[in-house]
Amino acid sequence: MFALIRRTALFLMLASLPVPAQDHTGAVQLRVRPDREGWTYTVGQQVAFYITATRDGFPLREARVTYQAGPEMMPPAQEQTAPLPPEGMRVTGGTMSEPGFLRCIATLEFEGKKYRALATAGFEPEKIRPTAQDPADFDDFWKRGKEELAQLPIDAKLTPLFDYSTPKVNVFQVSIQNVGPGGSGSRLYGILCEPKAEGKYPAILNVPGAGVRPYRGLVDMAERGFITFQVGIHGIPVTLDPLVYDSLRSAALDGYWTFGLDSRDRYYYHRVYLGCVRANDFLVSHPKYDGRSLLVTGGSQGGALSIVTAALDPRVTALAAYYPALSDLTGYLKGRAGGWPHMFRSEKDPTLRLKEKIETSGYYDVVNFARRVRVPGHYSWGYNDETCPPTSMYSAYNVIPGPKSLLLALETGHNTVPEQVERVNRWIEDFLRARALGQLLPGIEVVRGCPYNSGPDMPFADPWDNEGPQGQRESVRRPTPFVELPLNATEDRLAG
Question: What's 481's DSSP letter?
Fold first, then answer.
């Protein structure tokens, strides 16, 4: 009995103690958005930004936020720190007096950790014009470079990569000859993926983003019926130990994008741009190439190289470019955002804004290659990109004379989202497969010299035709015309 009473008393005493409070943590979601769906405004229209912070789906309480707003990549026009109400904060961002982008950046610190978010409003971006000047001898300069390249044999050396290969695809590391500095030669390395099955296939050149890294090739695209060649730009093998690339990135190749910038003939990208043409030399010589469809694609530096290659090489039939770098580099000299690698951004370093470097940049600025792109292209980027500012990308996009379509993933920065990649890959596949289908269509019989492909048995002669009555006009057989349309073409636009 005594033991029972003691246990009961102990239980009652423990039950009367306070229950320890449960602690918790979680990721803070700091968000900024403009007040207009589509994030795009007319010049002179006011924009407001909404800032919210949540954790576990509920508003963050007792937080303070610092926000700034102004033209992208420029010093902010306004900056302030204030308490963030649970329902969020509305910030008046102002407007722009000319086409461009206005950005709001918000930061807050909570429980010792800092968070950052941003949103960017576009003001008639389709009207942005480039600042880059087109050198008078631009075409002659690159013509001479391609002639120099053509004097060198491809000298392809293939090394099988059995560990990279699959039951459907053979994979090789490829080394080919390229131009080098001062007239010397160099090598270009990449990963070739080819379907094992017999047949003829379209080809894809994949050009790299900035950096120094190994590559494994586009095996997945090769398994879907394409010859792919993924290249590096630094003249070193692309299957070495990753530590080699880490060492080069932090030492010998650190800042390679400014090497030789004071000379158009010795600038680092001279060999790189011509190397992309040399990569196509190799692709079109492949025995399984269908001889009809050659597409180039990449992102950032690779987006730039896609545009460059399409402009330099008439064998390219299409391109797909994500957030192209090296665009409108001189924007900073005109008081607005310029493209990566932002070599003219700093006003404090007198060695960067030298006349010789500015002149050299004109021969390598993607804007000047964009002016010469006439093949179909699909482009994609976001408004929040701080590496390749949208002002710089639109500067190039807006001067492209060829068929073009733009896929915006507004909230993305210098990255992609799966939905975006899926759409771009679908465009690539649809384009290449459609061209392959065009090869299979039977030819058509038309009147010789007719610009409208009129048949010889048409009941009425065309106004230009004075060669004879129906059925007696000379005819020839032509391939069925293949018409390439922009992704956003509609029936009413086609019909006029």
Answer: P
47-51, 179-183, 267-271, 456-460: segment of lowest average pLDDT: 456-460
pLDDT at 7: 56
Read off φ and ψ for residue 194, nearest 5 degrees: -130, 140
* pLDDT tens digits for range 418-461: 999 999 999 999 999 987 665 555 667 777 777 667 777 765 44
Crossing angle of helices 268-284 and 138-150, rounded to 10°? 60
**331 closest CA partner among 389, 387, 370:** 389
pLDDT in tens, 253-277: 999 999 999 999 999 999 999 999 9
pTM (global) more than 0.85: yes
Sign of the alpha-carbon dihedral angle for 70, 132, 180, 187: positive
What is the rounded distance in angstroms from the CA atom of residue 90 to the CA atom of residue 50? 5
The alpha helices in 190-251, defined as continuous H runs, are: 219-223, 242-250
Side chain identity at 43, as an amino acid letter?
A: V
d(CA 425, CA 380): 11
Rama region for 234: left / alpha / beta (φ>0; ψ in -120 to 50; rest): alpha
Instruction: Decide: 336 and 391 in contact? Cβ < 8 Å.
Output: yes
Any idea which residues carry the catalytic annotation? Answer: 300, 385, 414
Paired with 50 in beta bridges are 33, 90
Give the relative orientation of helices 268-284 and 301-312 as an angle to the nearest 10 degrees. Answer: 60
Give the Cα separation of 411 and 385 in Å (integer).
Answer: 9
Other CB atoms within 10 A of residue 105 CB: 21
Say whether pLDDT at 89 is over 70: yes
* CB distance 456 to 445 below 8 Å: yes
What are the phi and psi torsion angles at 495 (to 5°)? Answer: -80, -10
Rounded to whole angstroms, the Cα distance separating 293 from 278 reads 17
> What would the pLDDT profile of 131-176 be if each residue is shown by its tens digit?
999 999 999 999 999 999 999 999 999 999 999 999 999 999 999 9
48 and 92 Cβ atoms separated by less than 8 Å:
yes
In this structure, are strands 113-123 and 157-160 parallel, antiparallel, or unpaired?
Answer: unpaired
Displacement of CA 37 from its chain's centroid (Å): 24
| CB-count exposure of residue 469 (10 Å: 0-12, 13-18, 19+) | exposed
User: How many whole angstroms separate alpha carbon 490 and alpha carbon 147?
Assistant: 41
The answer to whether 447 touches 454, Cβ cutoff 8 Å, is yes
Helix runs in 63-160, H state only: 138-150
* φ, ψ for residue 432, nearest 5 deg: -65, -40
- CA–CA separation, 235 and 177 (whole Å): 10
